[in-house]
Every structure is written in structure tokens, then in C-alpha cells.
Write a structure and sequence with these properties.
The protein has helices spanning 19-25, 54-60, 62-75, 91-101, 120-132, 136-150, 173-184, 190-200, 220-250, 260-278, 288-299, 305-329, 334-343; strands at residues 2-4, 30-35, 41-45, 48-52, 83-87, 109-110, 116-117, 208-209, 215-216. α4 packs across α5. By secondary structure, it is an alpha/beta fold. The protein is built from 13 helices and nine strands.
Length: 345
């Protein structure tokens, strides 16, 4: 029997991919990575076919279960028959989902440390398709990995230190993160994702190109939020830079009178290096200045041991100050802020 179907949840208008696009690309279907000769279900997406077991999908997705139940009730049981389903997802996305559903085709790569690692393309596909087909455990796992680098946490403003569960391909991937946050109602991903968009400025309007060649853009509302927030963020960053610059020059008071001239020279060099390093752009992270000052102090040390910790502490406080203001800077509505705060540990 044959069944053409789509999931219950349609794609948002901010994505350029559509059933029409994939239909235009459609050629003679070829076998995909997931193919079991004894399977009883063939899924066709674009120009790719997958053969697997209907019961496997039905057991994990109520959307697939309902789809197959309707088909079976209309056709009646056919012993040995292979069902055929045409879906309007990309072959790349479907491959990631099916890998995750099959025990021996783990979605992640195992590093030598034994920890799982993911590609951003995997996470994007898993969140979108798991949401569409209501496979909650896969959606939740993928979102939890995204949160290791994007989640906003007032109690721990530093994002995941050390090894990462995935690597961000470039800051523009934050456009997709905002899309995923809106799709799954996960506001904790929004503040830092908007911040990352601000670091690339006008390139945000170009959108994020997915693995399958389609492009996702910010919605009109979020694009406005990004533009207005970027202006507020630049002002806030400028205020912090001025404060930090004054603090650097004033740190010489901690030095002994005998070394004050030498320390003044060092602090002046740190001051100039700091202003040159920060430039006119928004730093890559709210804690960029801490690393900058630490490196500069190693090159231009002062006689007072406490000066280094004083400067580091100042950078941390400035970074935390900026971090705490991100939701307000990007104008997140009160209801989103309340839900965000409720999700924090």
C-alpha cells in the first residue's frame, strides 16, 4: 500500500524549505543509509528511500502511529506487504532522525573520553523532526546538548567550560538556535543566541544555511528585537569599556611608591592594549575582556601581586553585569522572562 503524508506540525514561514522545493529536486529515488532488506516500510524523502520497520517508528512516535493506523484501517491487513510513505522532510534531516531511533546507529560519535559529541546539523535536525513527529526523548536530549553552550543561567553565568558536547560552526548558527527555541518554546536559549547574532551584525539578515541547503531566517519580530537589542548592547558594552579603562589606570595605587612609575608604564600598556583589543565591535562572549586582561597582564606585570586578581575580578564583574542584562537588552517579553527564570536550577 502507498501513503503520502506529512507530520502534524508544519514548518514555520521563516524557513525557505518547502514541499515544493524538495519536489523540484526529486529524481529517481536512491537507497539511503538506513536500509533493511527485511523491513516492512519504505520512506521516501526527496530523492532518497529508507527501508526499515513500521513498528519501530510507531512505537516511538504517536504521529507515525496514527499515520500507519489510518493507512491500515483503510487498506486492511496485507501479509508480507511493504508500506510506502512519502514525507516532505529533507533526506539529510531524516537520516539524522533514523540514526537516533536505531540502537546500532547512534546519533553521536564517541570520543576517546567516552563522551558523546554531536554536529550542529545533527542537533538542528533532531530538534525539528522530533518536535514534528512528537518524539519527546530525542527532542529533549538534543535541546539539553544545545543548552550546554546557549542556556541562560543566572546562577552560573559561564557557559560550559572544558569539553563541549558540540562545536558551533560559526556564530550565525545562533539564528537556527533562535528558530529552535521558538519552535519548542525554550526561552532559556534566547538571550545568548541573540547576543551571538549581535556579534555578526548585519550578516544576521542573511540567515543560516542548513545542511540540506535550505535557509532559516529570523522572524520579522525577532529581527526587530535583534536590531534594537544590538544598539542597546553596543551602548552597554561601551559604558563597560570606559569603566574598565578607568579602573586599569587607577590600579597603580596598589603599587609601592618605589615601583609606581614602572607599574604606571605597565598599566598604561595594558590600558592601550585593552582598548586596541576590544575594537568597536561587540566581543565574542561577555567574558572576552577577562581573557584579554589576563593575557595583557602576563606581558606587562606590576609589582603588587594583588593587582592581577583585582583586574581579573573587575573583568568578571563586568562580564556578569553584561550577562545579567541580556534578556532586558533584547526586549524579551515578561512572560518569556518569567518562564525562563522558572526553568533555572
Amino acid at each position: 500500500m502507498s501513503l503520502a503524508a506529512e507530520g502534524k506540525r508544519s514548518r514555520t514561514p521563516e524557513t525557505s524549505d518547502s514541499a515544493a522545493e524538495f519536489a523540484k529536486k526529486k529524481k529517481t529515488p536512491c537507497r539511503g543509509e538506513v536500509w533493511f532488506d527485511d523491513g516492512n516500510l519504505i520512506i521516501t524523502t526527496g530523492d532518497t528511500m529508507f527501508k526499515l520497520y513500521k513498528g519501530l517508528l510507531a512505537a516511538q512516535s504517536p504521529v507515525f502511529a496514527g499515520m500507519f493506523a489510518v493507512a491500515d484501517s483503510n487498506s486492511g491487513p496485507l501479509s508480507g506487504d511493504t508500506s510506502q510513505v512519502e514525507l516532505h522532510d529533507s533526506p539529510e534531516d531524516m537520516t539524522h532522525l533514523l540514526r537516533a531511533l536505531l540502537p546500532r546507529m547512534n546519533v553521536s560519535k564517541q570520543e576517546n573520553s567516552g563522551k558523546k559529541t554531536y554536529t550542529f546539523a545533527q542537533l538542528s535536525a533532531l530538534v525539528r523532526l522530533a518536535h514534528k513527529y512528537e518524539i519527546d526523548d530525542i527532542q529533549n536530549e538534543a535541546l539539553s546538548v544545545l543548552k550546554t553552550q546557549f542556556a541562560y543561567d543566572l546562577k552560573n553565568p559561564w557557559l560550559c567550560d572544558g569539553e563541549k558536547a558540540f562545536n558551533m560552526p560559526n556564530p550565525a548558527c545562533a539564528i537556527e538556535v533562535i528558530h529552535l527555541a521558538r519552535l519548542t518554546d525554550t526561552p532559556a536559549l534566547l538571550p545568548f543566541a541573540f547576543y551571538m547574532c549581535a556579534t555578526i551584525g548585519g550578516k544576521t539578515a542573511e540567515g543560516w544555511r542548513r545542511e540540506d541547503g535550505t535557509t532559516v531566517y529570523l522572524s520579522q519580530e525577532d529581527l526587530k528585537r535583534f536590531i534594537d537589542g544590538s544598539m542597546r548592547l553596543a551602548r552597554k558594552a561601551g559604558e563597560l569599556v570606559s569603566s574598565i579603562a578607568d579602573i586599569i589606570l587607577g590600579a597603580g595605587a596598589r603599587c609601592t611608591p618605589a615601583c609606581r612609575d614602572q607599574c604606571h608604564t605597565s598599566l598604561t600598556a595594558i590600558h592601550q592594549g585593552f582598548l586596541a583589543a576590544r575594537g568597536d565591535e561587540i566581543p565574542d562572549t561577555p567574558f572576552f575582556w577577562l581573557d584579554t586582561i589576563t593575557d595583557l597582564y602576563k606581558q606587562h606585570p606590576c609589582c603588587a601581586p594583588s593587582t592581577a586578581s583585582f583586574l581579573s575580578g573587575t573583568m568578571v564583574r563586568c562580564g556578569v553585569s553584561l550577562w545579567f542584562t541580556l534578556p532586558g537588552i533584547f526586549g524579551l517579553p515578561a512572560d518569556e522572562m518569567n518562564r525562563l527564570l522558572a526553568m533555572l536550577p
